[in-house]
Design a protein that fits this description.
Helix content: 40-55%
Low-confidence stretches: none
Structural class: alpha/beta
Oligomer: single chain
Bound molecules: zinc ion
Strand order of the largest sheet: 1-8-5-4-2-3
CATH superfamily of the largest domain: Dehydroquinate synthase-like - alpha domain
Distance between the termini: 51 Å
Number of strands: 8
Largest sheet: 6 strands, parallel
Length: about 350
């Protein structure tokens, strides 16, 4: 029988986390403190370059670094490959990823390619990928997840993040809240399939969701404290995944539903918006407090209906009936998934497709 002493486990966490107004100004000192070696590569996006990418380049140059800037134009396999090749040609020794989720994902892979550390400088807080090593790459069949580098440090400047469209921040809230249904799925898999479960990781994932729900009425556009709160919740969510060594605590059936939608109706709604809707419905299947999730999303201004999210009813039903095929992860959807009738009923009764 296994005892705790037989277990060996490797966990990776960010070493430095800077959150707050104007922390971006400390990006140069941070690089020195982490003993990062010249030259630097900044991976940034066509829009986020003007928002923060060029500023970080100046700050690193002031700190004495030679800086190469690489633009991540998109998240298709071809575009990512071009970004990685360009990063490699610079012979950079470390990466600063400055941008939204897609840019940070490209930066995780670029750091892996050059074999150097990554500092994540998010310009928005739309999902909990800020701290994780996973990167999503788009293909014709939907999105595939690839292993990149866990950020060594995070610089989350709330005065920049609050300038991003509010829709992104609301989606980030929904991604954190969705941990509540993900954790239920984990417990189910633990009970029915003997899947290992970490109570510490589970507690962190729940804390992340509760943090957002408790402050739902204070999360508003243009209020910098909102950005602070959401970043904190998303970082805690990321740490829960680092502790678990997988995305389990933050990704259950509601994420499979979202990934199914990515294939059926790509680009219609944001990741967080989709998992929010999924979480309402999966919590209903768990016979849990789904209305609490719905009320919180509503307070925050995240979509609670397919229509709000710009999704068609038929696509939601299709995603519900195929979500169980997305990956080999045991959830409330079981091995066979939902029948069409059950999916229609679930979407109606929760008001997602009234
Ligand atoms: Zn997510």
């Amino acid at each position: 029988m296994d005892t705790v002493f037989d277990k060996a486990k490797s966990m990776q966490f960010p070493r430095n986390v800077l959150v707050g107004a104007d922390v971006i100004d400390d990006a140069g000192d941070l690089a020195r403190e982490l003993d990062l070696q010249d030259p630097a590569v900044i991976v940034t996006g066509p829009n986020t370059r003007g928002v923060a990418g060029d500023r970080v380049a100046d700050i690193l140059e002031d700190a004495g670094y030679t800086v190469h800037t690489v633009l991540a134009e998109g998240a298709t396999r071809k575009q990512i490959e071009a970004t990685l090749n360009e990063a490699e040609e610079t012979q950079g020794r470390f990466v600063y990823g400055v941008g939204g989720g897609r840019v940070i994902d490209a930066a995780k892979l670029a750091a892996k390619r050059i074999g150097g550390p990554l500092v994540s400088v998010p310009t928005s807080a739309a999902h909990d990928g800020i701290t994780s090593p996973r990167a999503s790459v788009r293909s014709k069949k939907g999105a595939a997840s690839r292993e990149g580098v866990t950020p060594m440090a995070i610089v989350a400047d709330t005065s920049i993040i609050i300038q991003a469209p509010y829709r992104l921040l609301a989606a980030g809230c929904a991604d954190a809240i969705s941990n509540l249904s993900a954790v239920r799925d984990w417990r189910l898999a633990h009970r029915l399939r003997g899947e290992p479960m970490s109570s510490f990781s589970k507690a962190l994932a729940e804390t992340s969701a509760e943090l957002v729900i408790d402050h739902a009425s204070q999360i508003r556009p243009g209020i910098e404290e909102s950005a602070w709160l959401v970043v904190k919740a998303l970082i805690v969510s990321g740490v829960s995944m680092s502790v678990a060594g997988s995305s389990r605590p933050a990704s259950g059936a509601e994420h499979m539903f979202s990934h199914a939608l990515d294939k059926i109706a790509p680009g219609q709604a944001l990741h967080g918006e989709q998992v929010g809707l999924g979480s309402i419905m999966m919590m209903h299947l768990h016979n849990g407090p789904w209305e609490r999730i719905k009320t919180a999303l509503d307070d925050i201004g995240a979509p609670t209906t397919a229509q709000d999210a710009g999704l068609e009813r038929a696509d939601v039903i299709e995603a519900l009936t195929t979500a169980h095929e997305i990956r080999d992860r045991y959830t409330i959807l079981g091995s066979d998934g939902l029948t069409r009738d059950a999916a229609e009923h679930l979407a109606s009764v929760t008001g997602v497709c009234p």
